[in-house]
TrEMBL record:
Record has Transcription as a keyword: yes
CC terms in the record's Gene Ontology section: cytoplasm
Cofactor note text: Binds 1 zinc ion per subunit. Binds 1 Mn(2+) or Fe(2+) ion per subunit.
Residues annotated to bind Fe cation: 128
Top-rank taxon, per record: Bacteria
Protein name in UniProt: Peroxide-responsive transcriptional repressor PerR
Annotated source species: Paenactinomyces guangxiensis
């Protein structure tokens, strides 16, 4: 599955004229195989052993390219670091209020809620975001 997603992502980038460098390929592969919603710093640290000449700026620049191409979304939840999610399907997040871990949560789309928000306010609603906050199982274990 991840291999197909990687191939599709590479084709999307090539289609808009983005040259595939080894670093770009590695960052994209890391994002597509990660379920942890990593920060740019976490991606850099995970790949620096394989790419000693790569900088954090390279990671940020590539994340911007991927975001503009519609391959990743940037998650900002009030802490200092943006996190990146390569799952572009409709889904929601549960966030640990202790450690900041983000876990995907599937739920039927809230399209009806968007439509009602549009109808009752006159806004042209383009998207929505819903997140839940709590304490993850690991933090619960540490607290016991």
């Amino acid at each position: 599955m991840a291999i197909n997603r990687l191939a599709e992502a590479v084709e999307t980038l090539k289609g808009i004229g983005v040259r595939m460098t080894p670093q770009r390929h590695a960052i994209l592969n890391y994002l597509l195989s990660s379920m942890s919603h990593p920060t740019a710093d976490e991606i850099y640290k995970a790949l620096e052993g394989s790419f000693p000449n790569m900088s954090v700026a390279t990671v940020y620049n590539n994340l911007r390219v991927f975001k503009e191409a519609g391959l990743v979304r940037e998650l900002t939840y009030g802490d200092a670091s943006s996190r990146f999610d390569a799952n572009m399907g409709e889904h929601y997040h549960v966030i640990c209020s202790r450690c900041g871990k983000i876990t995907d949560f599937d739920y039927p789309s809230l399209l009806n809620v968007e439509n009602e928000a549009s109808r009752s306010t006159g806004y042209k609603v383009e998207s929505h975001r819903m997140e839940f906050y709590g304490i993850c199982p690991s933090c619960q274990q540490r607290e016991q």
